[in-house]
Write a structure and sequence with these properties.
By secondary structure, the protein is mainly alpha-helical. The protein has 5 helices and no strands. It folds into 2 domains: about 45 residues; about 55 residues. One of its GO terms (biological process) is positive regulation of apoptotic signaling pathway.
Length: about 140
């Protein structure tokens, strides 16, 4: 019984199957003629208000487009502004800052490692160059 009472007091919106059930129900037999007339009048009034709101919205959208044109704002400018704003917002996040810091530190370590490898390679080439020069000059000195 308690579950039934709770079901009547639910505040959740109707879902697919519930909407179908309500749509197929015939409540008109439970209404008096006076109530039906009042509901029909309310329905007409709501439809008129919706039409008016659509017209007002359409007029405001046209006005918006005109203002943007006068200000030289176009879709490309708006996209650029949105992108810039989004990029700035992303850069200010903690995750971005931590990632940037980590990658920066890793880049510094990689640069140092490449520098050390470069130095070692240069030294090795220097040693090889000396060795080659020495091995070439030795036979020439023996012939004399």
């Amino acid at each position: 019984m308690e579950a039934q009472a709770r079901g009547l007091l639910e505040t959740e919106p109707l879902q697919g199957r519930d909407e179908d059930t309500v749509a197929s129900a015939d409540f008109s037999s439970m209404l008096s003629e006076e109530e039906k007339e009042e509901l029909k009048a309310e329905l007409v009034q709501l439809e008129d208000e919706i039409t008016t709101l659509r017209q007002v919205l359409s007029a405001k959208e046209k006005h918006l487009v005109e203002l943007k044109q006068k200000l030289g704002m176009n879709l490309m400018n708006e996209l650029k502004q949105n992108f810039s704003r989004s990029w700035h917002d992303m850069q200010t996040t903690t995750a971005y800052k931590k990632t940037h810091e980590t990658l920066s530190h890793a880049g510094q370590k990689a640069t140092a490692a490449f520098s050390n490898v470069g130095t070692a390679i240069s030294k090795k080439f220097g040693d090889m160059s000396y060795s080659i020069r020495h091995s070439i000059s030795m036979p020439a000195m023996r012939r004399k």
